[in-house]
Amino acid sequence: MRMLYRSLLLLLICLGPVHALDATAEQIRTYSEAILDGSNRAIGGRQIAATTVLPAFYAARDFAPAWSDPQRFSELLDVLKSAETHGLTPDDYYYTTLAGWPDDPVPARLAARDVLATEALIRYGYHLHFGKIDAASLDPDWNLTRRLQNVEPVKVLEQAVAAPDLEDFLKTRLEPDVFFYTQLRAALARYRGVAAAGGWPAMPEGPTLSPGDSDPRIPALRRRLAVTDPLLAAKSTETHLYDSDLEAAVKRFQARHGLDADGIVGERTVAAMNVPVEVRIDQIRANLERTRWVFRDLESRFLIVNIAGFEAYLVEDGKATWRSRVQVGIPYRKTPVFKKKMTYLVLGPTWTVPPTILREDIVPKIKQDPGYLARKDMVLLDRDGKLVDVSDLDMNAVSADNFSYTVRQEPGPKNTLGRIKFMFPNKHFVYLHDTPSQSLFNRAERTTSSGCIRVEKPLSLAAELLHDQAGWSEPEIEARIEHASNETVTLTDPIMVFLMYWTSVPGEDGEVNFFNDVYSRDQAVLDGLQAPFRFSAFR
């Protein structure tokens, strides 16, 4: 189908309009033919990526130039330069080349500039909408597409070129429309301002500091915090006393950097304070890119789990209306990144042990201690679903490779899934659920599960998801769970769940929060942002 479309388009271009073209338009047609048939896809040595959209755009306008108006061309340059405010690189869109283009009336040069400017706008719009990096190249589990839904790219390009305000058009039509993105952009501008002013002063290492202490490093601590904490900025930096104002500022810093907010300035807190501002800027850039991968063509209501931030959000009309701390997979059992629609809940769930956990954890424990299953309220089932007495097994013959049984944990206080689970069936056997391990929510870094997402406030989430069904308030759910045993509750309004990975996000107060890169994924994103543009990504 694509080849047929390209053949028809080439025929249209070659036939051309019935009236005569001026010299610049004629040259644009020549360029369009060469780009489309593949004989020359470079303008002044610079590759053209939009090898179908760009020729179709010019054919639809009889090859008339799009950027002959100096004011309009200047507006395009301003838009391309603003790519840096999104964490992108303006020269991926030929900004320096176009800004320095000689004032040359020769038709071939005018046509080349026009075609290159249109290519730049297509690239920029594509990256603004989808991100520069193809996330599937970094993660085999990625299942979000990079296709425009029910939109003709040439029409969008025509609308952009004709829009009264090009920047506003791109913001409205292509930029992610969600608080995550706008607040991360604002944070990027603030931290770049800090970098331009020289960054922040280093916090000297030394003994742990606690509230009430007096120490010669306290002024340095105040100066460091004042750079990014406007509530502390007006306070004196001369005192050596660790007072209550400083304690509150330290706790705010710790809470925003994925640390235990205890007010004690130890090695981890000092290390976080001494991360260079340039590293934080890159962290924001990486997460702006991740946001572009996701926030487009969305329903008005969806659920997000931020794996790196150990938090879940229910988003409605672009705003977070519910939040909860979560626990996610330990680094060698990473919670995967993907999206899937949640369709039902289970009250008083059983837990069928997934294959990996069965093979790596449960079978070795059964061999070591046959009473393990009974103590954990687990049962053994054969392939027909019939109960098997573990004492009937030949433990000398049992191994992880030949274990043909299913292990199921029954409902109750010991159940790994707690009182409720939230199901969005997927190949990873990953879902959200309650947990008896409540104390682990008090940790700042919560990589504690075997891959599933443990939710601190599962009943309030259930009430939110069942808001359109009578009889499902949080107290009513609590009461029903008391007597439930693997009871399925279907959602009349299924909701899309996004399991994502962001190491910096806006907090509830609008300030940016930074988290440790627990799965070591940031660098690959930054490498992709810095890499040369790969023009084969779209046509």
3D architecture notes:
With 539 residues, the protein is of the alpha+beta class. 38% of the residues lie in helices and 15% in strands. It is built from 18 helices and 17 strands. It has helices spanning 2-15, 23-37, 53-60, 70-81, 95-99, 107-130, 153-162, 166-173, 179-196, 218-228, 244-256, 267-273, 277-294, 355-368, 372-375, 458-465, 474-481, 522-530; strands spanning 42-43, 46-47, 301-306, 311-316, 319-329, 338-347, 351-352, 378-381, 387-388, 406-409, 420-423, 432-433, 447-449, 453-455, 487-500, 504-506, 512-514. The strands form 4 sheets. An 8-stranded mixed barrel has the order 3-4-5-14-12-11-6-15. A 4-stranded antiparallel β-sheet has the order 7-10-8-9. A two-stranded antiparallel sheet has the order 1-2. A hairpin with a 2-residue loop joins strand 4 and strand 5 (319-329). Helix 1 runs antiparallel to helix 2 (23-37), helix 3 (53-60) packs across helix 7 (153-162) and helix 13 crosses helix 18 (522-530). It is globular and about 90 Å long. It starts with a helix and ends in a 9-residue tail after the last helix. The mean pLDDT is 90.
In short:
The chain is an alpha+beta fold and 539 residues long.
Notable characteristics:
17 strands; 18 helices; 8-stranded mixed β-barrel; 4-stranded antiparallel β-sheet; alpha+beta; 539 residues; globular
- Order of strands across the biggest sheet? 3-4-5-14-12-11-6-15
N/C terminus separation: 14 Å
Number of strands: 17
Q: Which overall shape is indicated by the principal axes computed on the Cα atoms?
A: globular
Q: Work out the helix count.
A: 18
Overall radius of gyration: 29 Å
Helix/strand/pairing category: alpha+beta
- Main pleated sheet: 8 strands, mixed, barrel
